[in-house]
Specification:
about 20% strand, six-stranded parallel β-sheet, single chain, alpha/beta
Length: about 450
């Protein structure tokens, strides 16, 4: 007897949309059955002809616990994610105090999330100037990847210069470790921002000018050259512009081992939103032109950009204030979107561009699982995988409203967006974790460690 039988769904699998029934046993997908197959189950759920997608694997989030729990915590952040169809997050090693630079710190963060998270969670480790000796230890306790910056990340999180990047990538290669990079050029940003502040130029347009496309392109080009020269691999975080994506496309064409993500904000919003509406729309890299927004879609559609991740980076509303001496430069540079990624991207891809639901599953679940070593456990509706899935009502219209958000701080740049196609129920390992505004009493999320490191032969 199966534990669960999901009937009457349009199941979005890697090979196509399956009109069968899906059986679940011991938290995993047991297989797909025809109507003629006689199957007994302890529970039967009617999907009501909704699309059934694999649970979203959001590879880039900041649930700011420990350290900034007043910005977001695992309890509220995971509820928001579950409501939005996310079943696994890969959480960044900042903003945390202390940042996750060692095995001990990663284990402490995993323990903090235990019993609080409604969804499963993997954890990135830090890659900073001073923790080379800790990188293998991080892998041994389950770090999913390593986050590094090519620009100033603040006093507690040092960037790496190009020589250090080459050295660390070569070291990570010895056990197939993966590093992800925030790609904006350190010197270009530092000099431009210092010049602006000296002149008292602190407007939103000044911020956009400092965080230029040229800075992002230079950092990406530098990283690609390093990866090619060292024969290593790297992941490029939050690609914001089609000219940056074009560099990734050329690198892939030449067999260079880079993968890349973009974010809903770069596909749904533009710089005019920021200029006219303020700090809530500030992110880093920043929003780009409307023309760039439209062109970036093509690089998602053709597979150049592997994944779409929220880069959920919340804060208190006060941290978005621009009235201080630094003006726009002083406001927090992150957006809140983990709850609304699936619905926003579905509307863009399927409703506006006529793309297949298979593309949605690929960039929100399958590719993230493959890139970060979770394939076989997460990322697809396939036998043996965790039974993580979401019902999406393709006919349901929506408007994002602040009162609907489960975040600790209920504001978002995405408030006011409208579309069609809404996640209505989310399941984690075969158990419902959200439906019709209701969550289970006890969070059921688990730490999902990476596989143990394997030495390169």
């Amino acid at each position: 007897m199966f534990d669960l039988l999901v009937k009457n769904g349009q199941f979005v699998t890697p090979s196509g949309i399956v009109h069968k029934h899906m059986a679940v046993k011991d938290g995993r997908i047991a297989g797909f059955l025809d109507e003629k197959d006689k199957a007994e189950a302890q529970k039967i759920v009617d999907a009501k002809n909704n699309f059934v997608l694999p649970g979203v694997v959001d590879e880039h989030t900041h649930f700011d616990e420990p350290g900034y729990a007043e910005w977001e915590d695992f309890y509220h952040g995971s509820r928001a994610a579950a409501k939005g169809g996310v079943t696994t997050i890969l959480d960044m090693p900042l903003n945390n105090v202390p940042p996750v630079t060692s095995a001990v710190r990663l284990q402490k963060k995993a323990a903090i999330a235990s019993g609080k998270s409604y969804i499963d969670y993997g954890l990135w480790g830090a890659l900073i100037r001073t923790n080379k000796k800790d990188l293998l230890g991080l892998a041994e306790v389950g770090a999913i990847a390593y986050k590094s910056f090519m620009c100033d990340a603040g006093p507690d999180y040092t960037d790496l210069n190009l020589e250090e990047i080459a050295d660390r990538l070569s070291y990570l290669k010895t056990w197939h470790g993966l590093a992800g990079f925030h790609c904006e050029d350190y010197q270009m940003l530092k000099e431009a921002e210092e010049d602006c502040l000296k002149q008292g130029k602190t407007s939103r347009q000044d911020y956009l000018n400092v965080h230029s496309v040229a800075s992002e392109k230079k950092a990406v080009a530098d990283l690609i050259r390093i990866v090619q020269k060292t024969g290593t691999k790297a992941h490029i975080c939050h690609v914001s512009h089609p000219e940056v994506a074009a560099l990734v496309a050329e690198a892939k064409k030449n067999g260079i081992a880079v993968t890349a993500e973009t974010c809903p904000q770069y596909l749904l919003l533009n710089e005019e939103d920021y200029l006219k509406r303020g700090g809530i729309f500030k992110c880093s890299p920043p929003l780009r032109s409307e023309e760039a927004r439209k062109k970036l879609w093509q690089y998602v559609a053709d597979g150049t950009i592997d994944a779409v991740a929220s880069d959920y980076s919340p804060c208190t509303l006060e941290r978005k204030d621009e009235s201080g001496p630094k003006g726009a430069f002083g406001a927090w540079g992150g957006l809140s979107g983990v709850q609304t990624t699936l619905q926003g991207f579905w509307n863009l891809a399927v409703e506006e561009h006529g793309a297949s639901p298979l593309l949605v599953a690929k960039v929100l679940a399958e590719n993230p699982a493959r890139i970060f070593g979770l394939w076989g456990r997460k990322g697809a509706l396939l036998p043996g995988f965790d039974a993580d899935f979401v019902f999406l009502d393709a006919e349901r219209g929506w408007e994002i409203k602040a009162k609907q958000l489960e975040y600790l701080n209920k504001f978002s740049a995405f408030v006011g967006l409208q579309g069609t196609g809404l996640p209505v129920a989310t399941y984690l390992r075969g158990r419902c974790i959200y439906e019709d505004g209701v969550f289970p009493e006890k969070p059921q999320g688990r730490f999902v460690p990476a596989k143990l490191p394997e030495p390169v032969e």
